[in-house]
DNA sequence: AGTGCGGCCTGTCCGC
DNA sequence: TGCGGACAGGCCGCAC
């Protein structure tokens, strides 16, 4: 579910309530997430102080004076700051109760999310060590995308969703970026011109930044740290708009499956 | 090495 | 009303 804008919105939403707080209690109700929550997690975090709340790709890194919790929201996860007495919903899998009397609560129906803990540099963790540049960083530019795409036969939509190419671009923003760049999703990555790479890089940065500003995209159940939805769904040009008229040229938007995921595009605006 | 899938889970919707 | 199948913001790990 959450892509970079939703994860960043969550990170910035929870950070002020976490920073500097001492952990009063850790409550784990369901250990079986994508990877099981390790037995020592509660003891490693209880009584410790939150020193940082950062993001790398779609991972939220909650730094304590004892190590780092690496949180992933998977397809259906969300994190909220609330009163720990708030009645539990099905799939509320863990709480971190803070000295302030508030709590960080993780909710995830599909349990594709995860909670890992590491005592060493989280960026060295196997899941993070091999990740490509952040899309909003200067390292992700037209020259980079042109260089790494050479001789790659994979379709450009799958290429930009590959976390060894660039991180944070999921199924919604991949389709949206390609629409904005005017590039057909089936175009072979290695056939992109340098001009197309430049347009695509700009489109990815623009769409991600705009989505962050809007608080992310809520399609079904995603909510921000305060429980409110994101509003970027109103600004989607193609995603989940199959057969509706293109917002630019009125041609019906088309849908097909690529890598077991739905792709949406306008055959007139994208070549 | 690059590519393509199965699988992890629950919830919802749609056709029969 | 029930039931099967498809599908849903991700992504690892395995075959070829």
Topology, element by element:
Elements lengths: L3 H15 L4 E6 L12 H5 L4 E7 L2 E6 L2 E6 L5 E5 L9 E7 L4 E5 L6 E5 L7 H4 L12 H8 L6 H5 L10 H11 L12 H20 L40 E5 L2 E5 L6
The protein binds a DNA duplex (16 and 16 nucleotides) through helix 6.
CATH-assigned homologous superfamily of the largest domain: MutM-like, N-terminal
- Rounded to an integer in angstroms, the radius of gyration calculated over CA atoms is 20 Å
- Indicate the CATH topology of the largest domain: N-terminal domain of MutM-like DNA repair proteins
Overall structural class, as computed from helix and strand content, comes to: alpha+beta
Roughly what percent helix?
25-40%
Low-confidence stretches: none
The CATH C-level name of the largest domain is Alpha Beta
User: Into which percentage range does the β-strand content fall?
Assistant: 15-25%
The order of strands across the largest sheet is 1-6-7-5
**What coarse outline follows from CA principal-axis ratios?**
globular
Task: Describe, in plain words, how this protein is organized in 3D.
The chain is built from seven helices and ten strands. The protein is globular, with a radius of gyration of 20 Å. The chain has helices at 4-18, 41-45, 126-129, 142-149, 156-160, 171-181, 194-213; strands spanning 23-28, 50-56, 59-64, 67-72, 78-82, 92-98, 103-107, 114-118, 254-258, 261-265. It is 25% helix and 21% strand. It has two domains: 4-129, N-terminal domain of MutM-like DNA repair proteins; 142-265, Orthogonal Bundle (Helicase, Ruva Protein, domain 3), CATH 1.10.8.50. Helix 1 packs across helix 7, helix 4 (142-149) packs across helix 7 and helix 6 packs across helix 7 (194-213). The chain has 271 residues and is of the alpha+beta class. It has a four-stranded antiparallel β-sheet with strand order 1-6-7-5. The chain binds a DNA duplex (16 and 16 nucleotides) through residues 1-3, 6-7, 32, 34, 58, 72-76, 90-91, 108-113, 127, 152-154, 158, 161, 163, 170-173, 216-222, 239, 259-262.
